[in-house]
Specification:
This protein has about 210 residues and is α+β, with helices and mostly antiparallel strands. The protein has helices at about 1-25, 140-145, and strands spanning about 25-30, 35, 55, 60, 70-75, 80-85, 100-105, 110-115, 115-125, 160-165, 170-175, 180-185, 200-205. The protein has a six-stranded antiparallel β-sheet with strand order 3-4-5-6-13-8, with no helix packed on it.
Amino acid sequence: MNTLVRMVKMFLFLILVTHVSATYNACSKCGSIDVPYPLSTDDNCGDPRYKVYCNNDTLEFLSATGFYYKILSINPCAYKLTISPPPIQKGTCYSSDFSLEGLKLDENLPFNISKQNTVMLLNCSDALLRSPLNCSSNSFCRQFEDNVEEGIGCKNTLCCHYLKDSAMTSHMIRVRYGGCTAYTSMVDMKPGSSFDSWKYGIELQWVPPN
């Protein structure tokens, strides 16, 4: 019995040490957002492989092509964070990261795009009609164009939506000439949900440190 008690105490001690270590290494808040371990805003905290940036009290994620995306929320228990989709330039149907061909993650880093994102591609070429994406009149993107101010510049163009899944690249949402010129994304979209209940964002997940 004494051996069992000692083992339980040792186990609890290891959990406590791990928790204290993680808390100790956590970075300070950026604006109103906590920056949990392993995310790192500084060489002196977090894990440098999980780099995020605190710019003027705004926490941001840097893509492989050098575009900063605002971080909206972080769920450290699920190893996930949500970034804001890039704004669509006013009066146009071009995403603000269009010149960089959309969102691209560094495949050498421990982040990827989760499978909880419903992506809308806007102002697309007819080539998309040969894809398995939903480009019908019932696509969610039609509600976005008709009811959301940011989508007005995309009206009367071809648009499609798809649920990001394991069959697709987990490191890119691409826009380009000859394809689509703008995109947005929702997290955990429910079938049949109305546009005014959508949760805009691109959910990323990270591989926990060893």
